[in-house]
Design brief:
alpha/beta, Arc Repressor Mutant, subunit A, D-Maltodextrin-Binding Protein, domain 2, 3 domains, 7-stranded mixed β-sheet, 12 helices, elongated
Length: about 300
């Protein structure tokens, strides 16, 4: 199977148009059509459904597309790893992080890592942790950052514990709910959940830890900006890392609610695929994460 034919097919799927795909890879449209026809003859199946509006992958085409993308990703990892093992610290490094990690740990790690390895392009993807694990398993990210989940399959990942996190309750400054002194007093208030649904999230975890029914979800967010904006602009309750909640910028808009049950205690960690030889950039970034965690813990 020719690599050029495979890349022509991938371009056609992603562009949804043979003309656009041909422009993308720098060939004529008849040449690109010939490449895809060769693939279809070789595999004895139809890969694309053609119409006047463009092209779509058949079921067989989607199988090939997904495998081709995964193979191309692994080849890119191999090129980066080979260059880095030879002393050339170039390439890309993809970091998947939940909002908590983006707010707290990523900025300092990016600052010091970027100073040491300026030729490595860093890509940060902010998303829910379950999605980050999926991306990590597929090789779409090199490192996943967030509160360490329970019951990880043994041996699947390299697990690095970075720092303890106290998630404290916060409300908008001046919110009457700031006078609450127990979780039970906040049980009927609307809470912001950081998750895909109200079936998960730190608020649910906090209440269930103390044997209480989870509060109603007033909002669902999956971004740092969304979390801060929702809490600061309404009568909704949320959770933030203590280090963020007492930041002067946050304190100007938010107020910590000191309930008797105390904060929700988490462990922020990093996961990487358990491979025999990690890219040097992954190992270096893990070291910078530890350095950032130590710095934040010391200055808290």
């Amino acid at each position: 199977m020719k690599l050029t034919n495979l890349r022509a097919f991938v371009a056609a799927i992603e562009e949804g148009s043979l003309r656009a795909a041909a422009r993308r890879i720098g060939v004529s449209q008849p040449a690109l059509t010939k490449m895809i026809r060769e693939l279809e003859r070789e595999l004895a199946t139809t890969l694309l459904l053609r119409s006047t509006t463009g092209v779509l992958a058949t079921a067989q085409g989607m199988v090939l597309y997904e495998r081709a993308i995964a193979a191309d990703r692994e080849l890119a990892h191999a090129v980066d790893q080979i260059q880095q093992l030879g002393g050339r610290m170039t390439g890309t490094l993809a970091i998947g992080a939940v909002p908590l990690a983006v707010m707290l740990l990523v900025p300092e790690a990016l600052r010091t890592f970027g100073q040491e390895f300026p030729e490595i392009q860093l890509r940060i993807i902010e998303e829910l942790y379950i999605a980050q694990l999926t991306r990590l398993r597929k090789g779409e990210v090199d490192i996943a950052l967030g509160p360490l989940p329970e019951h990880l399959p043994p041996g699947e990942f390299i697990v690095e514990k970075l720092m303890p996190i106290d998630m404290v309750i916060v409300v908008r400054k001046g919110n009457p709910l700031a006078r609450a002194r127990s979780l039970a007093e906040l049980g009927d208030a609307p809470w912001v959940y950081t998750g895909a649904s109200a079936d998960a999230g730190y608020a649910k975890m906090l209440f269930e830890t103390h044997g209480l029914k989870p509060p109603p979800a007033g909002a669902l967010v999956n971004s740092t900006l969304g979390l801060l904006s929702v809490i600061a602009s309404g009568n909704i309750v949320g959770l933030l890392p203590h280090q963020i909640a007492v930041n002067p910028f946050a304190m100007h808009h938010l107020q910590v609610v000191p309930v008797a049950e105390g904060p929700l205690k988490l462990t922020l960690g990093a996961l990487a695929r358990a491979e025999t030889a990690l890219k040097p950039s992954v190992r270096h970034f893990l070291a910078h994460l530890h350095r950032a965690a130590h710095y934040l813990t010391r200055t808290a």
